[in-house]
Design goal:
It is a single chain. By secondary structure, the protein is α+β, with helices and mostly antiparallel strands. Helix content is 13%, strand content 33%. The protein contains seven helices and 33 strands. The chain has helices at 4-13, 82-99, 189-196, 269-272, 274-277, 357-369, 439-442, and strands spanning 18-20, 31-35, 60-66, 104-105, 111-112, 131-137, 142-149, 156-158, 182-183, 200-204, 207-213, 219-231, 234-248, 258-261, 280-284, 293-297, 305-308, 319-321, 323-328, 331-332, 344-346, 353-355, 376-377, 386-387, 394-398, 400-404, 408-411, 418-419, 422-423, 425-427, 435-437, 446-450, 455-459. The chain has a six-stranded mixed barrel with strand order 6-7-14-8-13-12. A five-stranded mixed beta sheet has the order 1-27-26-19-20, with helices on one face. The radius of gyration is 21 Å and the shape is globular.
Length: 463
């Protein structure tokens, strides 16, 4: 992969302005109107998903659903309140920043190596994961519904025999019933890679053991294995995953079978299938609980507005981008470019986008100025720019656009601007901390991770 510094140089030399639209073709429009009822997430029906064109180049697309919506393939449990989700979201964001505490950010979004040791707690707080896919594992294939997470590399499902497992809706995967299951011996290259990446847990007899410790104190451990993975009509042979036989803490309590890692490390689904489906994947996170999205491996890379993909050799799981400006109501805010120099990561598991404090203050002030007709409301957890929409049948809000390096202008959908009556952004403690582009802002866009092309892309209105 080309060094990040070269990518930044290329984008400076070949600066181009491309625009991703979110429902309104007129970029000069400074406001959008939405129904007050759309701010409420309650829904009982699953709407038909938009037709998704098949990826070119032999890729595969599978449906993606919100865990607590009526489209979810597993029985719904009681969804946490928004306040609880925001509390968990802060834990995840804090953990991401701790993981980058050993990485220095260069002035142009470049990530430089540091002498500081990256923490060995490699996983994240899982309480904010919201989106699931269903895959088949084994021969014959057993359906397993799993969370997706771009911040994790090791995928895992619960397996028999399991000394300590959480309840799940799908049948527990039984390795002895699969003709293609194979545990990795301790002497294997896969086990050596696992140890190198800090996720090995020694041996049990001669079999390789994995462990992932998450930021909320939970963990999963078991035998590192391979088996056939079914993704829609396609199959992946020798897919590497953890066969979880013991967990601690409140790992996953939502009847799901495990986690599918989409990070940038060697163990992730995206990396393992790069030769089969190309080094590009994409997803679309649905705007409501009652709508569906998709995950595509081997995604087509045309038709997107793109910004350079930045990577850290020390924390390879994450996909970095450089935010350069913010527009409110069609006008660019007066924020010095240096404010964004710490860079940001794209994260499917973080809910609320985190901005440098100076940038957030400017965004909040400009947004309030465009919302003077609505009384202010009390803050809700980490969200402090809130409004009282009592008695309103429709709401008029200023448009918000994120401008990334390379000239990619991403005009957010209404779902990516307002959440629970509040501006769906939060501030970091200062301007030097890593930013995070959360999943609320990603909703309805097809978000492309073109690892081979060193780019992140956005295509509006995809789901």
């Amino acid at each position: 992969m080309a060094p990040i510094s070269k990518l930044v140089l290329l984008l400076m030399c070949a600066y181009h302005t491309l625009v991703a639209q979110a429902g309104d073709d007129d970029l000069r429009s400074s406001y959008m109107v939405l129904s007050a009822g759309s701010l409420k997430s309650a829904t009982v029906n699953c709407t038909d998903p938009k037709a998704v064109s098949a990826p070119s180049g032999g890729g595969v697309t599978v449906p993606l659903h919100h865990r607590h919506g009526p489209c979810s393939p597993v029985p719904s449990t009681k969804a946490p309140t928004l306040e609880e989700m925001l509390r968990r979201d802060q834990l995840r964001a804090d953990h991401i920043r701790r993981r980058f505490s050993g990485v220095k950010q260069g002035g142009a979004g470049d990530v430089e190596e540091s002498e500081v040791t990256v923490p060995t707690t490699l996983g994240l707080s899982l309480g904010t994961l919201q989106y699931v896919i269903t895959v088949g594992i084994g021969s014959p294939a057993v359906n397993q519904t799993m969370f997706i997470d771009t911040g994790s590399d090791v995928s895992w499902v619960q397996c028999k025999p399991c000394s300590r497992c959480h309840p799940q809706a799908d049948p527990l995967f039984d390795p002895s019933s699969s003709s293609t299951y194979s545990p990795f011996p301790c002497s294997s290259a896969a086990c050596a890679q696992l140890r190198q990446d800090g996720q090995g847990n020694g041996c049990s007899g001669s079999l390789c053991q994995y462990i992932v410790n998450y930021g909320d104190g939970s963990s999963t451990t078991g035998t590192y294995s391979s088996d056939t993975l079914a993704l829609g009509s396609s199959t992946v042979k020798n897919f590497q995953f953890g066969c979880s036989q013991s967990e601690s803490g409140n790992l996953l309590q939502d009847q799901t079978a495990g986690l599918m890692g989409l990070g940038g490390g060697a163990e992730s689904l995206a990396t393992q299938t790069a030769r089969t489906f190309s080094r590009a994947f994409s997803y679309c996170l649905p705007p409501t609980l009652g709508s569906s999205g998709f995950l595509t491996l081997g995604a087509a890379t045309s038709g997107f507005v793109k910004t350079p993909l930045l990577r850290s050799a020390q924390v390879p799981a994450y996909y970095g981008v450089l935010l350069q400006a913010i527009r409110v109501g069609g006008r660019q805010l007066n924020i010095p470019a240096s404010v964004f120099s710490a860079g940001s990561i794209m994260d499917s598991g973080t809910i609320i986008t985190r901005l440098p404090r100076t940038a957030y203050s400017a965004l909040s002030s400009a947004f309030k100025a465009g919302m003077k007709q609505y009384p202010p409301a009390q803050p809700m957890g980490i969200l402090d720019t809130c409004f009282d929409f009592t008695g309103q049948s429709s709401i008029r809000i200023p448009t918000v656009a994120l401008v990334f390096a390379g000239g990619a202008v991403v005009n957010l959908a209404a779902d990516g601007i307002i959440l629970g009556g509040c501006l769906a952004f939060a501030a970091n403690s200062d301007d030097t901390s890593l930013g995070i582009i959360g999943n609320v802002q990603q909703r309805t866009f097809e978000v492309l991770y073109d690892v081979g092309g060193h780019a992140i892309g956005f295509k509006a209105g995809a789901c």
